[in-house]
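Reviewer comment 2.1 asked that we show a complete input and output for one of the modelled complexes. We chose the FE2/S2 (inorganic) cluster case, as it is the one discussed in the main text.
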Amino acid sequence: MNPPAPIRFRVNGRVVTVTPPPLKRLSAVLRDDLGLTGTKVGCDAGDCGACTVLLDGAQVCACLVPAGRLDGCAVTTVEGLDGAGVLKAAFHHHGAAQCGICTPAMLIAATDLLARDPAPDERAVRDALGGVLCRCTGYRKIVAAVMDVGGAQHEPAAAGTAVGARLATVDGAAKLSGEEVFGADGVPPGALWLRVARSPHASARFTIGDMTPLLDANPGLARVLSAADVPFNGFGIYPDIKDQPVLADGLARYRGEAIVALVGERDAIEAIEESDLPIEYEPLAPVTGLDAAMAAGAPRLHDDRPGNLLIEGRVVSGDAAGALRDCARVAEGIFETGFVEHAAIEPEAGWARRVGERIEVHVSTQTPYMDRDEVAHVMRLPPDRVRIVPTACGGGFGGKLDLSVQPLVALAAWLEDRPVACVYTRPESMAATTKRHPARIRARMGCHSDGRLQAVTADADFDTGAYTSWGPTVAGRVPIHASGPYRVPHVSARGRAFFTNAPPAGAFRGFGVPQIAIAHEALMDDLAEALGHDRLDFRLLNALRPGDTTATGQRLEASVGLVSCLEALRPHWRDALDAANETNGGATRRGVGIGCMWYGIGNTALSNPSTLRVALAADGALTLYSGAVDIGQGANTIVTQICADALGVPLDRFRLVTGDTDLTADAGKTSASRQTFVSGKAAQLAGEDLRRTILRQVNAGPEARIELVGARLRVIDGDASHDIDLAGAALTGEGTFDPPTTSLDDDGQGTPYATYAFAAQMAVVDVDIELGTVKPIHIVAAHDVGRAINPTLVEGQIEGGIAQGLGFALMEEYLPGQTENLHDYLIPTIGDVPPIEVILIEDAEPLGPFGAKGVGEPGLVPTAPAILGAIRHATGARLTRVPALPHRVRAAIRDLEASND
Ligand code: FES
Ligand code: FES
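Response of the prediction step:
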């Protein structure tokens, strides 16, 4: 075969000559041949837009452009957006880049637009950016940034003014320049690559034949890893449940399960056909869905789990069954949800290298310390011989709390003594990694004739897929939240998780609370309707208040802001109802719905500590060492703002060291909305600790001012001024915070969380009653966050959560084997997310840093209930299964019409 012909084209104004195969994708040419890793790859199929570049001035998906088309063309990547300073500044100012993986493409698309239309309206922005998916932001701040190019910019925060200020992120610049290093970006030259071969069957026995012929036929294939190569072939979140093999051992329990791993030169392993692998499968009848898992005589997925039951959690207070008998009104229903895919735009990615007798893993993760311990366990190494270096994380949402590439690249790099990298393809990511738990919830709720809730019963069953993952967390958290954010004296709630031959269901923003919220909010609407109460007023009547006791027997002392949320929503609610009444008629019906939520911050009834350190070096360098991984939610900025004000030094004096398990203390995982509350508190304590140390050196009072100018440290205490010589030992501060919780007894009684977030959201939708389509028009979200450390970032979290809640409500349903890419599995685009108005309620949490709680999960939880309530208001149809796809909406309307006949 002739070698490929050279191709000359311009990239960012520079002429380059490359000789790739003519069908090599432009995205790969840019990244692999030219080192321009600012162009991201999220799907390689033209679906996500993360690879968007300008080709001869027009935006294109670089993954769809073959190299053979490039000769004589001009390509602009994010690295070449020299003239886009004001656009980048607007992104920075508006908090439009969260994780940053979509940001280069968004900037390219916006540049394309602004070249044609320097002052675009919202519709033009939506049209121009419509090809780029963002899973983090909910798009609203991106739209605002593009419409505000050249607008206001942030001023640096003076000492003591960081908390509460709308500051730009401390780590945003690299995301805007394209220099940020994500999991696939920093692979060392000369690394080997690893590709996983996966089970095509949901349930199958298999045998692996002799690999020697394959190795002999493929000189670039270095080795093939199988279960026999894994020192301890089991991992899992819980110390006592390591039931998921790194590589399946003769039995595949879900489609997409890892069977063998090919390690070698990248081209060589990619060229090998799956059919070339000597793997013989004997398909078995899979256990599909909850009914099959629970059926008498159902095959057991795990020998030690009779009835395929993983775990059961429960909360019992009072006598719910008896109280329901005495209620004036009782509502009930069965509610169902499906698998939901995280769809982070960055697939799982990372690489490892052996450093002497240690292994170092660079990976996109939400939980470096858990990764360290898991990799050590799998490799039978002491944890201190494993180093996890988190790369930037291009979206997590719970999906990067479980191991993916980590043990595979670690093992391969250890055995080969060469760096080894692995990047999941999009279909692989969707088939192999965890999902939101499908749920079936039977619930009843009753109230007195005056509307006061008396009792709730809930049986929530979850499909936890093939392995344990976070199933126990969901089964434990859900019963606690089953009664909603309301005063209910009698509660009986149960959560159970069952194994099936589906992908493991794991952590996904909310840990089951979004599912149970659909149930309790639908029943609240039922009862309000039965009593003729306004739906908002009915919630207000029953809202938890300070001094109330929850179903677990926990007395809520402070920071219980649901009443304030509802009151803040009230004028919008009234206006929206009035407007809906005026506009209704015809095939398109307008509806208004409301949803409330509460969410326990942090781990459920478990120790949950975080430690942060801050150090002032001899040269005046002030460094915050934070293990609280920022996955785009802004933890880097939040902990720095908090520490800066606790210490009393301007924020821009800080530099950050984050995540690296060799350099930072364990701050716990980035999940359960805990980093602002737990690690933020640790940051506050660390800053205060260093401040005390400094003041003690010069006997200054607590109100003294600290000035750090260059390497000079000065303490000004009233009229006195003291200079401190930093030439001696570094000054350090350390803070550790573990929220005060208790374990729960057999009835679920105790204090599972130190604090709770509260929220109420209102959705306005238009429903086409003939087509069954639902179009969100407007969402108003009132959230009690305790204290908004950075209102821009808090809003961004809420807006992003709402977009995911909208997807959960209306479009997202993962079907194994069917929706394993981003054109069959739809997530909200910029055109799907309506205007969102965020109202921040600051009901300070005394335990929190400067009063703050957490907001990562709460944004998502009430959105689906509010949208379902709006559909019902528009049509009268009560949907009990999400997503509310058009055929389900139509069926519900038909059922309603039939029952009215
Ligand atoms: S990577 Fe090209 S569109 Fe997704
Ligand atoms: S900021 Fe857009 S995908 Fe994360």
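Residues 76 and 549 are 59 Å apart (CA to CA). We note this here for comparison with the apo prediction described in Section 3.2.
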